[in-house]
Amino acid sequence: MKGLHKITGTAWENSAVAHARFLQKISNNNLELHYRNPEVNLDHIKKMTTDFGMLQFSKINAPDINSGYTIDDNARALIALCQHYKMTHEEEDLKYIRIYLDFIAYCEMSDEQFMNYVDFGTNFTTQNGEVNLEDSTGRAIWALGYVVSLAMILPEEIVSKAEEIIERTFRFVQNTHSPRAMAFILKGIYYYNRSIDSKTTIDLTEMFADRLVQMYRHESSAEWKWFESYLTYANSVLPEALLCAYTVTGNRIYRDIAKESFDFLISKTFNETGIKVICNKTWQQKGVDEMVSFGEQPIDVAYTIITLRKFHDIFKDPDYLTKMEMAFNWFLGNNHLNQIIYNPCTGGCFDGLEEKNVNLNQGAESTVSYLMARLMSYKYFGNENNEYARRKHKSYKLVN
Question: What is residue 2's predicted lDDT score, i.e. its pLDDT?
């Protein structure tokens, strides 16, 4: 492992980035540096998936059966494979969609939250009693809602199963108060409402959105336009959820707070050359100007890309597209180490960007996060045949 970390900077893709930046430097920045998106590769996701679900961790690119499964990973994998099926209509995707949906059904508890942790023997672990399960429940609802939204293209038995599960959750989710859990639920309801009109879900949308608005008004100030007194993980889902609530209800308060808070967030995470998400070691505290670098996770970059896509779709501001491409280039080498985070050979994504090295393990969270970001951004860049092609839309600032 130490040897791999020592030599990873000399991988072909990293050498290509280094040479391109050198040529750019000696040309006095007269050359534009662009990144070509790798082909979509599902190999590692399929390798990480058993007949029961997607395993949590891997050692380098070897699945670690001792890590077991989580509903978090399987919910995200369900969304990603549905995205891929929507784009390609590949029949093999349905096999994996069924596996991930069945896993969510397995974790459903009667009138309670979903369990999150399952060992390789399919037993629920003691971890479920040691953590707050609201966030994982919210992610499950997000995934179920996304499946229901694709009722026109997915097989009926898949959609019906997702619909039955998500509708059972409506009886108990009112007691959810975790900000990110509420945000994931709002996203799930937003997708559910694309296919099904429901007074219940409108009421739930307003209830959760009003709670987020109340949090925002309590914590925000002229210098700190946020819902909490800190920035931690999955930050972008909070403004995105409010924007989803706006599209469902038409309430302009949700829209205005969504935009104000998201613009504040990207002011903290973007500079002129790229993205640097909140460090997972210290987080960012209100009133503390100095931000700690390093400890960047692929999932936060992916969530930011997903939110940028939603904000561009609603507001049509090209700056959101620019930042979306800058953020995606983080996976391809536009980061402080100038090293790739995605492995095109395996189809896996490395688990994190540290101060002096990339974490070379390719776990479920990072790999699925990359795929979600890749599929979410395909329409807008990396496709040389459409109007958003890089050669027509300059969306990358030159690096000095």
Answer: 83
